[in-house]
Amino acid sequence: MGSVAKKGLQQYLLQLQHHPLRTKAITAGVLSAISDIVAQKLSGIQKLQLRRLLLKVLFGFAYLGPFGHFLHTILDKMFKGKKDTNTVAKKVALEQLTSSPWNNMLFMIYYGVVVEILAGCGMGESPVCATAVSCHFPQRCSLLLGNISEFASEVYDIDKRLKPCSSK
After folding, report:
1. Would you call 157 helix, strand, or coil by DSSP?
2. Torsional class of 67: left (φ above 0), alpha (ψ -120 to 50), beta (otherwise)
3. What is the reported pTM?
4. CA–CA separation, 126 vs 54, rounded Å?
5. Does residue 45 sit in helix, strand or coil?
6. What is the pLDDT of residues 9-23, one digit of tens each?
7. Which of 31, 101, 104, 155 has the most beta carbons within 10 angstroms of its beta carbon?
């Protein structure tokens, strides 16, 4: 078993050398999938929500992998390839103070807007309804905007004009 894992690691490192961007994007997508599967199981979801899972894989593959690749390329150029402990600490501090908050904020927006709407609204619904932001506007917008959407829905009577996606 150890030799299989060792060969797999060697193949991974070889791919990382020859195709770094592609390998990092695929790795980020796979890690996003694993983390979402674990999160769904720990939260008590009996049947995996595949649409939610695929949307998170897409975020990992299309954004997190490439972003991390280019960020570390820039950091290596900034620090001229130094690998001593002090330089590594500076890279980590810089990353934690700049890109980590950005990535967390972007993920929360992506999750709140894209994943919640498409995975929540789209289960068994038409693609038009699954992509329509208005089908969940009063409910989902309060996640991002606090009580503003509740106030707006009362003032403009939004709840009565928009029907939920689940009603047919």
Report:
1. coil
2. alpha
3. 0.67
4. 18
5. coil
6. 999 999 999 999 999
7. 31
